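Convert to structure. Protein one:
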Amino acid sequence: MIRTGPAILIFLAALLAPLPAFAWSDDAERCFAVSYDAPLALGYCNRALEEPGLPDADRAAILNNRGVTHTSLGQFDEAARDFTAALDAGGPDVGTLNNRAIALGWNGDHEAALADLEAAIDLDPQDSISFNNRCWLYAEMGRAEEALADCDEALRLRPRDAIAIASRSYALLKAGRLDEALADADRAADLAPGFWQSWLYRAYVLEARGETAKAKTDFLKARAYGPKEWEVRRALEKRGLL
């Protein structure tokens, strides 16, 4: 069984792709479980990659999972190297391209991240996650109208996706459309109250509206639901909430 790590931006969505013949070791299985203890997972991933006779496809999956682990720790250069090695070993892959785009985007290399997301969309024009991630990236780049078009496309492909709605609230925030941003943020929180993204993006909108007490409550909710997420940690550190 080969397992690839999440196509992330702000949404961890594990992808499973079965392959015959290769029995995964305990280290490989523990490397896959990156959400439990990222620093510990790195050791498992490293040992799994040293196994003799590792098929290229399984090497690609383990490298991808190690890259996700590096991303969760804010180690974006290391993450991008792992995703590149995964693509070299396993060939073009929508999830890995998304993962590298997020690492590159958070590292400030927006143009390279955009190229990866465009390649992912070319590979699978029906993948809503790629459009959602490109919505976020365009918002980060100050290209709000393109961001909104991509979030709308993500929602066309996957209606009622709370993460895409949260991303659209972020794009609306960047466009200065605060009332619409809050409406989307409220809807995302209603649809997915257990997702840290719902609370983090609503906190950003509330903060921009000057509702600082409500924003603080939502930042703390984001911490409660995603205490190890790099984006949550960064936001709370900036505001002295860690």
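Protein two, convert as well:
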Amino acid sequence: MDNTTPWAVAPEPYDSPAAAALWRAYYTEVSDRWYLLHEGRATDPAELERGIAAASGSELAPPHGQLLLARYAGEPAGTAGVRMVDAETAELTRVYVREELRGKGGAPLLVAAAEDAARALGATAIRLDTRGDLVEARALYARLGYAETAPHNDDVYAEHWFRKPLPSPAPPRAGAPRPSRTSPR
């Protein structure tokens, strides 16, 4: 059986050129979706630049956070970030896969890797918020075991809040292969 996959997920500095390019793509997409839905237009370019610059991602740097970058066939393809919000809770953010690669299994790999990173940071639970128009994201989180909860913040764009416990992973059975974030589940 062939366990190879074109996906690989690894930690990445939040300010690397690949991370910055994917942040720009993510922010542009979610901003344009909001403006098209609510105002019938794309994001004003100057506003887009201000928004991208205002969120550097520095909170996704160790020791209190981690940005993960997915590569598909070696090319930057997506991101997911985690940051600790208290001693036991991490927040999942910046989950993004380039549009042309969606549906190929990258998002679940990124989220699983982010959950592992959150555990490594000491989290026993992970939370997130998202918007109502991001229906694909909401479906992904529900499919991956996230439960919708009461609001945990007052972000003006947040419309849905999710949480998932992060129990310690079970130790592998003797002789069982160890799971890899680069192989399909």
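The first strand starts at residue 7 and ends at 11. DSSP finds four helices and seven strands in the chain.
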